[in-house]
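JOB MANIFEST
job_type = single_chain_structure
chain_count = 1
residues = 78
[input]
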Amino acid sequence: MTTPSDRTRAVLDTRWFLQTLAKDEQISIAGLVSSVAIGLLRHYPTDTEMAVSATAAPTIWSAPVKKPPDETAVARQC
């Protein structure tokens, strides 16, 4: 079960991960990006959880906006 502290850590760790990617010119370890992303997403908040957070703390979060499906992603699923 994902706890509030798991979610908070996922958000903070994701920021660190993105900052690391932005600084590095080349990722030299094969699979690093994928394995770190999987670990971060394990407790990352869902759209529903973000919407609940936006309702509870509207000065901190906004409700997620639904995007139309990506045609490329849909084509890959077929």
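[summary]
The chain has a mean pLDDT of 79.
The two ends are 32 Å apart (CA to CA).
exit_status = 0
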